[in-house]
Design brief:
With 829 residues, the protein is mainly beta. 8% of the residues lie in helices and 51% in strands. It has a 22-stranded antiparallel β-barrel.
């Protein structure tokens, strides 16, 4: 109740503050106007009653912002995390993120949703090579945007707007980036008319490589290395003044090595919900009393010497890492029909992704063999291949000259087919163990290596997922008065997802069981392959009211509903019906203001929000239909996120611009009871995570969310003589407070983190040269950490062993300080 009262007070104070702001006329020193298309039409950023962060092509190029992670670090309250593998990405906006199911944030290119969903890990996907894109700007939109952007815009949307071909004459640019760690990037673009005023082309290409930031002490291999290459051709055709057709096709290849990580093993052991005294050793006896152990505490730095990734059991050498091949095409038709405009947007994508890496992040046998209460260590290789193909189509009809406002009507469809081959297997220890007496006995019974598994007739786990989605949406903005506008929008969405698998054994059991008994997890009457289908039908409305107090003050309030579709948790699953999950639902309330002060030289934008978040899709351990432990999913009861944001942009003089952004987010579960979730008694893990014997995690923080986030920026320029060149100095700094790593009361944390990036250079209208340093302070706080079962060194507790296995934290080492030089030259118009 106190939090709700505080929120209401914050919202009221925000509204009252903005009502008192006095408007003043702009001067020649005013901040440049920023045009965005957040509401599917061109508008001044300060006129849009939505919290939006926009980055121009100039800003992106000067700071070398090429990927989603680098861009989002400049937006307080938004975090980008890459977890288990390159296709396991998570974006958090205002405390809303995903641990299972489709991404909570829509990632779009020119309005076409390119978000994907992994099969073998819970999280997002790798379906975006932004290094290839020739960008005009990037817009980061906070809060549910389901009505305009569809099924994935649950927490918000990120829209990459590419540059169009030019009809004005031949022009282009080339840029080169050289830095430590073998980093190089070459980018180029050329554009111009082919038929004057009718047809123009734009070709851009990019290549990037780095040798890696760390070394694996076990194998000597480079870690965090990557390379990407791609080309994109765009065409614009204007047969007359009323029609514009834009088409584009691109192809990219990207490879990445394994990432460096440090494992933090269990240091606290529990008897049910009670932590045992510090220093208690793991219990190995048949009737021991440690039910569960986990790592607790705050991780404040990472050590390269602690990295210990094993070699591949397939080759004996380093793992291959990941490979990403993407073919993308789009066709956008804009037709001005006088009082209305017709727009057709077609998207196509073909994506092949493979990854081979050490999945237990450790080397050696680990905990010894599991008999009579003694845990066993499982060395594991993670190896999967995924092929995805989708089509999307959207058609909208919008007003162009309605005097009292604007409206949009639209229909869209999405068709996706994903096929995954999972060759991941685990086995007891290394070849030395397989050749031992005990290993010989066990490996005769089970599968200790890929070769042994193949000889035993085990087949890879095949998963097919087919997604069909269509929706109808609309928006009406009505000017009640000259100053007061009401905007109402809504989208009806129908989703159908079907999952089929060739074996009902989950990945963990697959390392122990021969495929001949794959039917153990099937129900009577079922046969392989086994399928299941879920459907979702939802309506997502949004209503906003904005009031123009004067030319310099806009205040607004909105309420919106977002839903994330139902589906399946296909990470390590057995039968699809064992891992069904319902759709998530979010109701979001927001008030805010966009204001201009000091003769147009200061922009101050404020927002306060309150979100009620139900049926969150989370991962839990389950017992499969056949009685085997497996990774599962469920829907947690309810969570709330609330907070406030402040964005300041000040230009005190013509050659100096300063920025400040701050976000406060309070995110916690209000209904999270494992006894309810499991329909009975919580497990020992549930009890330890919640800190009580009931397994009630009410009050637990939402994993991955920082309570405080701050960004500071500055840009200073100074003319050089009488030339058109100028010196520039740019600085960007980001701070985030500590973050919990798990949706639990008892959770480890990542320590607070500061980052500072600097650029010093010379620029003109036609060229630029800059020296830059990223992570100037060489901060070693891990970029992210994953809280998972310790399948290598975890111990079993309790009589006769068995679940639960201890949990550990895999902390991923951050990018160290990088110093480099960046040059760019433009030619033509």
């Amino acid at each position: 109740m106190m939090k709700h009262t505080l929120l209401k007070r914050t919202l009221l104070q925000t509204a009252c503050l903005t009502m008192m702001v006095g408007g003043v006329a702009e001067t020649a020193l005013a901040i440049d106007e920023v045009i965005v298309t957040t509401r599917k039409r061109a508008e001044n950023l300060q006129d849009v009653p939505v919290a939006v962060a926009a980055f121009s092509a100039e800003t992106l190029d000067r700071q070398g912002l090429r990927d989603t992670k680098e861009i989002l670090k400049l937006v307080p309250g938004v975090q980008f995390d890459n977890a288990f593998s390159p296709n396991d990405t998570r974006i958090t906006i205002r405390g809303i993120n995903n641990s299972r199911g489709r991404a909570s944030t829509a990632i779009l290119i020119d309005g076409i949703d390119t978000s994907g969903e992994s099969v073998t890990v819970g999280g997002g996907s790798s379906l975006l090579n932004t290094r290839l894109l020739d960008l005009e700007r990037v817009e980061v939109i906070k809060g549910p945007q389901s009505a305009l952007y569809g099924r994935n815009a649950f927490a918000g949307a990120i829209n990459y707007i590419t540059k169009k071909p030019s009809m004005d004459g031949l022009e282009g640019n080339v840029s080169v980036d050289l830095a430590e760690h073998g980093i190089y990037e070459v980018r180029g673009a050329i554009t111009g008319p082919v038929v004057e005023d009718k047809f123009a082309l734009r070709l851009n290409a990019a290549t990037y490589s780095n040798d890696g930031y760390y070394t694996n002490p076990v194998t000597g291999e480079d870690l965090n290395d990557s390379e990407s290459h791609g080309v994109r051709l765009a065409a614009m055709f204007t047969p007359n003044d009323d029609v514009e057709i834009n088409a584009a096709v691109s192809y990219s290849e990207e490879k990445a090595g394994q990432r460096a990580e440090e494992t933090y093993e269990a240091n606290t052991f529990y008897l049910e919900s009670v932590a045992l005294p510090a220093g208690t050793l793991p219990e190995f006896s048949s009737f021991g009393n440690q039910d569960y152990g986990q790592f607790t505490g705050t991780i404040d730095d990472a050590d390269e010497s602690a990295v210990a990734l094993s070699p591949s059991r397939r080759t004996g050498g380093p793992f291959e890492g990941s490979s990403d091949d993407t073919l993308r095409a789009s066709l956008i038709i804009d037709w001005d029909l006088g009082p209305v405009a017709l727009k057709s947007t077609t998207g196509y994508l073909s994506h092949d992704f493979s990854v081979s890496q050490d999945s237990d992040f450790a080397d050696g046998v680990g905990t010894f063999v599991g008999l009579f209460g003694i845990g066993f260590g499982v060395e594991s290789d993670y190896s999967t291949q995924t092929e995805t193909e989708y089509w999307s189509q959207e058609v909208t009809l919008s007003s162009t000259d309605w005097e009292r406002g604007n409206w949009i009507l639209g229909v869209s469809g999405f068709w996706e087919d994903t096929d995954n081959v999972d060759n991941s297997l685990s086995w007891y220890g290394d070849p030395a163990f397989e050749g031992s007496l005990l290993g010989g006995v066990l490996c005769g019974m089970f599968s200790c290596s890929f070769d042994a598994a193949a000889a035993a007739g085990m087949t890879p786990k095949l998963t097919e997922r087919t997604t069909t989605s269509w929706s109808i949406f609309g928006l009406v903005g009505f000017d009640i008065t000259d100053a007061l506008r009401l905007t109402a929008e809504a989208r009806y969405v129908h989703d159908e997802i079907e999952v089929t698998t060739n074996t009902a054994i989950n990945r963990v059991a697959q390392s122990l069981l021969n495929s001949d008994i794959a039917t153990t997890n099937l129900l009577p009457g079922e046969s392989l392959p086994v399928s299941d289908t879920v459907t979702s039908d939802t309506i997502n409305p949004r209503v906003a009211l904005d009031y123009r107090v004067n030319d310099d003050v806009l205040i607004y309030a909105s309420v919106a509903k977002g839903t994330k579709p139902a589906g399946f948790g296909t990470a390590q699953f057995s039968r699809p019906s064992d891992v069904r999950m319902k759709e998530e639902e979010l109701w979001a309330y927001e008030v805010g203001a966009k204001t201009t002060w000091l003769d147009g030289t200061l922009q101050a934008n404020l927002a306060a929000f309150y979100n009620v978040y139900t049926d969150r899709q989370i991962s839990i351990s389950i017992i499969s239909t056949g009685g085997f432990p497996a990774a599962g999913v469920t829907n947690a009861g309810e969570a709330e996120t609330m907070g406030a944001e402040l964005d300041l942009l000040w230009q005190p003089m013509d050659n100096l611009q300063l920025g400040l952004g701050y976000a406060y987010v309070d995110a916690e579960f209000t209904d999270f009871d494992f006894a309810e979730i499991r329909g009975g008694t919580p497990t020992a893990k549930d009890q330890a995570h919640c800190g009580n014997v009931e397994g009630n995690c009410n009050g637990a923080e939402i994993g991955g969310v920082a309570e405080h986030a701050l960004t500071l920026s500055g840009l200073y320029t100074h003319p050089i003589g009488n030339s058109d060149a100028e010196l520039f100095i740019a600085a960007n700094s980001q701070y985030r407070s500590e973050r919990p790593l798990r949706n639990a009361v008892n959770t480890p944390y990542l320590d607070e983190k500061w980052n500072l990036d600097l650029q010093l250079g010379v620029q003109s209208d036609d060229w630029s040269l800059a020296l830059y340093a990223n992570n100037v302070l060489d901060d070693e706080t891990p970029s992210w950490g994953q809280f998972v079962s310790d399948i290598h060194n975890g111990n079993y507790g309790g009589a006769m062993g068995g679940e639960p296995r201890d949990d550990a934290v895999y902390a991923f080492l951050p990018t160290p300080r990088v110093i480099g030089v960046r040059a760019n030259i433009k030619f033509g118009q």
